[in-house]
Amino acid sequence: MNGAETVVRTLVSQGVDLCLANPGTSEMHFLAAMDTQPGLRAVLALHENVATGAADGFARIAGRPASTLLHLGPGLANGLSNLHNASRALSPVVNIVGDHAVAHRRLDAPLTSDIEALARTVGVATRTALPGADIAAETASTIAQARGPVPGVATLLLPADTAWSEATERPVAARAAEPPSAVPDAATLDAAAAALRQPGAVLFLGFGAVRGEALEAAGRIAAATGAALVGQTTNPVLERGLGRVCVERLPFAADAALRRLCGVPALVLAGARAPVAFFARPDQPGRLWPPGCALVELAAPHADAQAALLALADRLGAHSAAGVRRHQAEPAPGGDSWIGQALASSLVEGCIVVDEALTHAVAIAAATASAPPHLCLQNMGGSIGYGAPAATGAALAAGGRPVITLIGDGSAMYTIQALWTQARERLPVITLIIANRAYRILELEAARMQVHPPGPAMQAALHIGAPDLNFVQLAEGMGVPGRRVHNAAQLAAALAEGLRARGPLLIQVDV
Amino acid sequence: MNGAETVVRTLVSQGVDLCLANPGTSEMHFLAAMDTQPGLRAVLALHENVATGAADGFARIAGRPASTLLHLGPGLANGLSNLHNASRALSPVVNIVGDHAVAHRRLDAPLTSDIEALARTVGVATRTALPGADIAAETASTIAQARGPVPGVATLLLPADTAWSEATERPVAARAAEPPSAVPDAATLDAAAAALRQPGAVLFLGFGAVRGEALEAAGRIAAATGAALVGQTTNPVLERGLGRVCVERLPFAADAALRRLCGVPALVLAGARAPVAFFARPDQPGRLWPPGCALVELAAPHADAQAALLALADRLGAHSAAGVRRHQAEPAPGGDSWIGQALASSLVEGCIVVDEALTHAVAIAAATASAPPHLCLQNMGGSIGYGAPAATGAALAAGGRPVITLIGDGSAMYTIQALWTQARERLPVITLIIANRAYRILELEAARMQVHPPGPAMQAALHIGAPDLNFVQLAEGMGVPGRRVHNAAQLAAALAEGLRARGPLLIQVDV
Q: What kind and span of H or E run contains A204?
């Protein structure tokens, strides 16, 4: 058994069954190995950032890592920005990168570069499986490190000679059991309880705290203490909709976030990072919690927020979240987006919404707050071009549940190639392109900077409507049917068509 | 004047007049500065790898650097593979990357990453312009290092607070004169002359040696010594066609290259790297020159090959290249590609051909060997997705001369967004997509590995025909007219149409 076969066999034995691939010559033995060692399904992407973004989306829904397969340093570089996003989402990804044979690196052939340096910028672990090493152990360690304790991108560089050479067969330990979850100690629980009882206190939720039992427990705690439930501006997987515990979203705009947290006496962090501004401004602090506000960390972002919140709810004797659930009768303020309203009437229970709507996101979220319960995936690293790839990976994990992607036109163009993989794999992904013909978020920045009228360079950089992008043609060029809509009725009809078809559909929403 | 304005003014004063941009919030002050400090033209790309590949193409034709404008680490990452290609082409690129304000980096906001580490993987120089530093001097040094002595990618990180803060005004030295070109010493010239007189010797040409006066001198040397003129497998700019000195191309496939150089007693390197295999194989050496073959370096890849070859021609008393020019009467062997023949009859003198045809490249090159004189740009770093961006940049430098891009369908999908910039800037670029519905180069690898029949993973990874990519729709979706052709007559007609239109056109060539 050669090294490539050993890697594939180890991946499968450790529970990795999907390989999101954009391979080249150095990865040919790995491809061949997938055909001799069963259990690892290859899905091709036409660009590496589709493969890596799909690995992020897959991990968020499946709760376990997929592998990638990338071609040397440039292949890794192409996929790096969505690995950055995955890393910020604490998504486990087993990132396999082919490398030149070890002796060949010294010759500085055209594709040679410092792959480890690239991988280290996004990774929790980076290693090279040298020929003669214990390849199965190296692979198993990579997978284990991707899983945690802080999950993330673990990269295994596989030199071509490792892949093609006979590997020493050594048994790999069976996958270790998950470590028992750590519950905060009594002092932390008491500090959190005391903090939350202060008027205006905030239970700040992120990562594992905005879903499932953790979210239910947070709702009970809020009901018992009177604390507000505020979520991170973005979260990897947020459960929301009718009957769910309501979580207010901390605004993206730092001035609005500062206003929201102004006067808050205490922030209890449950699976959340302490909030900071996305970007600095000359006249504004970067930390978003006010001076004098106490921070109590109940659970770190990678920790078991569910166990921590359940323990706190128990300590508080908090048994009911009735008052903090979302009910049909409570329309969210600002929910007058016609896109959001059409979406709200179309969402089906259990569906997955991948949100890269940027400047439209808040209004759409308000309108869908009382829609049937659904999962919402958000961009954690801020690098745009995450939506279509993440939706592709989410659909690969979701067992036929529909996925609806909301993307701005500017963002969509970074990774539009994801549509082709959706078509090839016949994935039930409906992609809404919200086409405003601008990098609207930058227009808002320009307005804030009081650049008016914008000069030609600013105009050239912010407006993408000349020539006009026709996403219906782009989609159909990649095998995905496309529709173009201009109002809520047309959008609802197109969404219904997409949900019936159970395959990919693109809807260009002109605004 | 703030830091951003100082950077822009310094770029302009040092001869940089084009900025290939994909900006974000951190770059807003730079955009505003381009509108207050005249002379730097902004051209928007919808993906960073289009911007960086265009900077490579621009530098090759203009002979001077353009700047980029990229958004933090993920923006740089997205453009990194074409910076890798630019770096391998010794193309000067002034790579401007916005960064968070210095104090904001410590807060580890979502877009924070190690930008310098990324930049160092492709760069001749990487620096951060900290607030309070001499910003004009930092900018001028970056430009100077991009220019040489070894030209390449020089990165200037511009933190947001440097951009928005008042910069100290200090005079910048005028641009230094080019250093006098160094001519090889007499001993090297004599060694080269003696080596080339041996039967079977090769004058191995690369970079500056395959164009202009350098190429003419190489022809005279070959005629005088009987040495063969062999070029690197790829070169940044190759002059070829009717009346030009003929240069044989070292084959891409290592086994064919080894056969060509077998028995060669001496290789005189003029602007060329000593040839190595693109990829290692278990049964094959990585160095392509045979044991016992003498290597004489007349000029390093970044050195003044023209001065060196002129000096050698003088020393040899070599006055005529008549015997080694390309004439109409000499069809190149293997020139029976119908694509190549249609192209040969359509090329106009002085046009630019950007070659990313991969498995079709050799046959097309044979067919166009006696076409009107033209420039050929090739991929130097091996990372695919270089063609459409490089053509975009070449056209921005070429003052209306037509550019014809040859790209395989697989390669084209990496950076298809370049078409939009071609449409927006109304660039006379004709893009030929040679659609064989496969990563054909990997199919050849699979055949060589004797993987037959290929299993499902191999099949999935190599074949991109299901669903079929319709490049006409993709082009029209980005504002570029498209045609689809199936034979030489249709192709010639479409090429004629494109040349008449003097704007972008895409031709899908089904093979």
A: strand A202-205
